[in-house]
Amino acid sequence: MSISAVMPNYARMDLVFDRGQGAMLYTADGRSFLDFGAGIAVNALGHAHPHLVMALKAQAEKLWHTSNLYRVAGQEKLAERLVANSFADTAFFCNSGAEAMECAVKMARRYHQAQGFKDKYRVITARGGFHGRTLAMISAGAQEKHLDGFAPKVDGFDQVPFGNLNEARAAITPQTAAVVVEAIQGEGGIIPADPSYLQGLRAMADEFGLLLIMDEVQTGMGRTGKLFAYEWAGITPDIMALAKGLGGGFPVGACLATERAAQFMTAGTHGSTFGGNPLAMAAANAVMDVMLEKKFLPSVNAVAEQLWAKLTPVVAKHTKVFETIRGKGLMIGLKCKVPYTDVLTQMMHQGLLAVGAGDNTIRLLPPLIITEAEVDAGVAMIDRAATAVVASSQLPAEEFSE
After folding, report:
1. Domain 17-48+295-393, classified CATH 3.30.465.10, yes or no
2. Which distant-in-sequence residues (6+ apart) come within 8 Å of 273 by Cβ?
3. Which of 27, 49, 129, 357 sits CB 3.0–4.6 Å from 361 for a disulfide?
């Protein structure tokens, strides 16, 4: 019996990348791939973005880490920018989305318990959701594939069907402190929440004195065409978790909150040794430099519109392979009729990378700086990959006319 030096807890593709540029990745042996996965929605500005490279190089030559025993100038700058461009009044910085969600849940519990409601700790979550890999967050998501072998579940989470406001209201008890929701379930299969559902959750939280927590780890930072996906529904949460695109590839997370929600997060209540260190803040501030440019989000929406327009007829063409297309902006799901792994494999053979998800769905999460030419190339690869799937599986030929 032997085990690899790198713990074998990932089913990795046999690809080793040597460098990247924009939306392209290159292996050491010279192969090139168009990246429609973006490190699972992390490389929002693509690979080796010159502004991010410059910012990290400059910071690396000055100061890497001091801990949160001292003020960190980059944190103060980034927090002010996030607050100015969101619902929030304050921000806590950490290293990942799971940590941001842990902070959110801790904040919700403390909000109630610091006011004397010691039994308020339960959080309503939605089936199909994914909030990270800590013991608490796999309990919040409650998916068996993530819980298997890690019993017992952390207590305090009550699951209801995603999109069902009546079930959410029925789950409220005197112990309920908060409700957690994703604007689009990413890991669950790119399933968007109806705006009326999010609006209903906001009203429900207000009615029952709960805190509304939005997990925007994947949807945040321009992915859906607005800086934050909650904006599409015309609501504001009390607490929001960010990560992924915030650092453009550098590990950084953030938990944003209103003053009301965060008022009891006083010195010593929460912390992170590495969270918000100067390197991470340099990367995140560089991302914000780009995303806050006036033309940035309009360009994201324009290229997303092109991708949807080109991809929709391809999905309609390959009815033996694809069931539907769904999502928002540059967060797109292709629900498959054949095993999605078959389609991903053929896409990779064509030179296109994407990401799997629940509900037999492929996630298309290209960098937000994708060009029109790269959209055309990517859609053509998906078309060829679907044709190859039909040919290799001996499915009946597709019938499609313009």
Report:
1. no
2. 67, 68
3. 357
